[in-house]
Amino acid sequence: MSPTLRPITALWSREIKKFIHDRSRVIGALAQPAGFWLLLGLGFQGTFQMPGADVGYMEFLYPGIIAMIILFTAIFSTISIVEERKSGFLQAALVAPASRTALVFGNTLGGTTLALAETILFLLLTPLIGLSLTLPGLLLILLVSTLTGLAFTSLGFIIAWRMDSTRGFHAVMNLFLLPLWFLSGAPFPVQGASLPLQWIMALNPVSYAVSAIRQALYLPGPSPVPFASLGTSIAVTIAFALALIVLAVYVVKQPLFRAKRVTSQPAA
User: Fold this and answer.
1) Predicted pLDDT at 263
2) CB distance 156 to 78 below 8 Å
């Protein structure tokens, strides 16, 4: 194995092992969004009306919950960066004979793999909303979930890189990720929102990931909840993931610890 791939593989494997041995992460990253889906879906099932389409709320919310699972996985996987700074692992990784880029790819690929595995488990619930996935639809969902996982874990990596406490990390992550999810067309349709919100949702790259997942569920037929074309949705999702990966690589190459300025005292 090449010197570049070795540290990436080691960090990826480490993320997988940490997740397997920490059952609370498994429950939190999967059970919480699934419970959220059931509670909201059953609660609004009788009152939700999609303009121009006969779609129940559980069916409408389903693609957004896939995005939420990826979001929660990003939070749980990248928070370890803050903890590893305190334990000294991060400092040891920085002085190791490996590029800092490997640190980015090892962590993001690990978090993305976990998100993909949880997405596959959640897709087993698809028959509950009366849909049957086709092979092209399944492959498309896995592709979009991979890209979204790379984007979210890269964003989490960027935020966690200079965080000193897990409380601060959670506060900043909620400031970024939850609005991205709420304004993605996941909990409510774009068509029913006010005009200012429709503009914000159109500028939100997560909206296109949710749109791509939603369209993949109905392949080869059209989606009853249109937002953007499938090609546009995939293109924006790819650009979003690449932009955040590049930004994460840039951030990790900056000095993590800045030397304190020393002021000389005049001699007595």
Assistant:
1) 42
2) yes
CB-count exposure of residue 168 (10 Å: 0-12, 13-18, 19+): middle
- What is the per-residue pLDDT for 268? 42
Query: Which own/partner contact pairs does 160-166 have at CB distance under 8 Å and 24+ positions apart?
Result: 160/78, 160/79, 160/81, 160/82, 161/81, 161/251, 161/252, 161/256, 162/256, 163/81, 163/82, 164/82, 164/85, 165/82, 166/79, 166/82, 166/83
- What pLDDT digit, counting tens, does each position of 170-209 carry? 788 778 788 889 999 888 888 778 889 999 999 999 999 9
Cβ atoms of 218 and 224 within 8 Å: the answer is yes
Q: What global pTM score does this model have?
A: 0.85
Distance between first and last Cα of the chain: 61
For the chain, the domains span 5-252
